[in-house]
Amino acid sequence: MTKLSMHAVSAPVFVRMLNNLSTILAKAEKHAKAKDVDPATLLNARLAADMFPLLRQVQIATDHAKGAAARLTGTQIEAIEDTETNFEQLQARIRRVVSIVASFRPEQFDGAENREISVKIPNAELKFSGLDYLNQWALPNFFFHVTTAYAILRANGVELGKRDFLMS
Amino acid sequence: MTKLSMHAVSAPVFVRMLNNLSTILAKAEKHAKAKDVDPATLLNARLAADMFPLLRQVQIATDHAKGAAARLTGTQIEAIEDTETNFEQLQARIRRVVSIVASFRPEQFDGAENREISVKIPNAELKFSGLDYLNQWALPNFFFHVTTAYAILRANGVELGKRDFLMS
């Protein structure tokens, strides 16, 4: 019997999708090599002039994953500087965040649905219950940035399919 | 006190994001009018030649929402034909799916984490527990298509921000 818990609807989702993102980025790097494309071209590609490029999408996706795991367990968010400039470093960042998210014990999430969580955004502070934070902030933001990373690569000709996004 | 339940991590998430999608599409339609752009140009826009256009992204997003609500509650999926050709019809489809998803009582989702769910995809049948189905299929697919709809519009110059995606 599967047990529903705040852990079960958060940490494994982040870990699975981060691993999928890692596979997607590996395919992108391989594509760049095969097509003799400068990897920086993909890493700096964006869907609109005022949207973030691929590299930043990956940084933000990982930030939402580790931010959610820390906030839901009431622990300190582990800071990671945004210094990556290539695929190898992004892969290392993803591995590090997978490791952070997976390091929490399921029971550390117990009661997280009622934890008071506040998130600072420019000029405002959002206040959520843990459940609303997960449903309305952490998961939508996380999926937004993983999907946008995938979309940037698809728009730039990298051979990816929905399967890579869902179950790579 | 917030209660964690299969309902709480599914139906309200779909409803909220569908309402956000509705707002995003309303802004897109307004943009087309203001810029004297044929709405069909936006509805048929895509990020890559082998990705679905905006109109189909909205249809699929709504399908995942009503499919998830039905499968998790063990009820019949209400079929909706894919006949929309304009913004008004897409808005009606979203309203209809919001109404379907919101029509289930929370207790109909009780125990859904252990419900056996199978999903037919081309040449295969996927089997999930209800929890895995939500985490690994319904939510990732749903967010994928809502985000891609947003991304198509952003790539085509519609003035939208992350806020529209998260909390419109």
Description:
The structure is a homodimer of 168-residue chains. Chain A is globular and about 50 Å long. The first copy, chain A, has a two-stranded antiparallel sheet. The first copy, chain A, is mostly helical and 168 residues long. The first copy, chain A, contains six helices and two strands, in the order H-H-H-H-E-E-H-H. In chain A, helix 1 (11-34) runs antiparallel to helix 4. Chain A binds chain B through residues 1-6, 8-9, 12-13, 16-17, 47-48, 51, 113-114, 129-132, 134-137, 139-141, 143-144, 147-148, 150-151, 154-155, 157, 162, 165-167, and chain B through 1-6, 8-9, 12-13, 16-17, 47-48, 51, 113-114, 129-132, 134-137, 139-141, 143-144, 147-148, 150-151, 154-155, 157, 162, 165-167.
Write a brief caption for the model.
Two copies of one chain form a homodimer. The first copy, chain A, is mostly helical and 168 residues long. In chain A, 58% of the residues lie in helices and 7% in strands.
